[in-house]
Amino acid sequence: MTSHLRQRSRGGNDEDALARWTAPLARWLGGAQNGARALEYVPLAAKEDEASSPDDTPAPTTEELPAISASSSLSRLTRMGLLATLLVSIIVAIAVYHPPLVQFRQLYRLRHPNPPPTRVGSRQFGPFYHGKGCNSTQLVESLARSRIRPDGASRTVYAHPEGLDPNDIHLDTFDFSFNLDGCPPPHAFSPREACDLVSAFGGIFNRGDSLMRQFAQGLFMLLANSLDLVYAHKDECQGTRIFTNGTFCKDHSILTSLDFAHVCPEQPYVMYDLVWRFTHERRDGEAEPDYAAPLLDSWHRFVDQLPPDRQRHSPIFVEATGIHYHWDANATLAVHISPFIRNTSSLIPRPIPFFSGYPAVPPNKPVQWIGIQGPDVTQRYNREMLAALDEVSPEGSIDGGWTMLQWYNVTDGAVSYDGTHYDYQVALERAQIFLNVLDALWGEIVDSGGLVVVD
Transmembrane residues, as ranges (predicted)? Predict the structure, then answer.
């Protein structure tokens, strides 16, 4: 607009000014008479607050509308009459035009002038833990302090009810093995409630070793309302054998919600990505692989396959590594945490990352592994990672900072079938607690203005 005014102040030609001012209106009128275009999604870009001004659009030239350019041979009075007639025609066309029922553009907006960098969508159920007495930070701190009750279900081997399908899960008989220290009891999510909550985020990307695989499988069985999580029928992997026969079943397990029958109305996009071999398994002279590049590649593939509406919500990232690095916290930071922070800290919506701490070391840990996988080194690593995350990512979860989930105390005393891994009960407890954390966090993001509204 300023360019038009500058030209008029310099004594520009009236015919040129007329063409420039009427060209956009004429083009709009022609488009309106041809009907609205197809529905268009307007992306919520990283620089969403820097809306471009229409003044930045180059002015159309007189050649674009030769039919309405005034003739230089006409008198000034005749030209003004033509201009008045044209303007009246445009006003009448606007008055009689009725837009179609289908929206021209579907806009996504926020109801808050200063929202957090994280974003969530709406839900049909809940919230169930938000507003009940502890926020997400307090809940995570309470989890770290809590311990298994003497009668906790995880202290005994899980027994599936006789006569029922071994792949069924039974939430009506489920109970947590511990009471939260200083916070209200957690909610036990039904599969439909779990699906609804997960769908309010941009999916969940789990990445780590075999302990993280079982964490992800706990989420999978809730979303599927089933323990049938293998690609082909395998008697060795029916029911809870998906956990207790993990060495065999991991080669047949479904590790993405894209491939199993979930109960969600839409795709929940929950996936597990495997971390590579132990560092001490490298051949002599072999260089340390660049693990950071595959992490970022797999993360970008995960985000890219989300549909446009889910890309407007913050995705969840859960990482669990350490045992494969001989409990070297510096290696974990250099290979996994720092590259992720560098590549995601400026994104809108910002991902919400979690580090899943290591559970307790069971008393039946094989003797040959006690020195390098025993309680002392495991707990020291958990403490080092907690301190490191506080230093490199001091922001809260609502701002996209890292949060550490500490499972050691709530698994100390639980039955392990091989001295490292746990069964159905622990997997379900960890999945349920994590959903309660997400539920509380969802409410906090909404309260801060991060709810994405569809118009």
Answer: 80-98
